[in-house]
Amino acid sequence: QYKRLYEILAAAEMLGRDQYWFSWLFGLGPGAEYYGPIGMRIGEGNLYEMKHYMHNMPFFVIYQYGLFGLTAYLLFFVMVIKSALSLIKNSSLKGHKILAIFTISMLVGQFLCALFDPLLLAFPIAPIMGFVFGITYRLNKNVRNERYLNNCSQLQYTKSNA
Question: How far apart are CA 153 and CA 161, in angstroms?
Fold first, then answer.
């Protein structure tokens, strides 16, 4: 019933038990395992085994890559959302705006799912999401460069007519 909470508590205990104080900063590494619950058995209590994943992606990132890894993980979300919002603001094409809205909804949905399930680890949707995020980011850069070039040419035209 509380298996996912027990996973976090078991992993936090392993981080706290590590002999190095900086484990919370850098994590225990990508291959790190923890002794976590495998399920509830009536009358038997929890059964535990060594596990290499957990159902809370943000804490999983802390466990394996530390607070620096979590910062990078969250910065990825911020960068993609910022890029999509900029695309909505700067693009005049309806298709770009639809893609940006789709990207934001996909990213928010993935983040909410990641609190309860390792979505990016377990499902083949990760490459699709990466492709959509990459396209959104690249389109935003193209639109911003195009606006910059348009502004420069307008400025140059105004100076030549003055």
Answer: 12
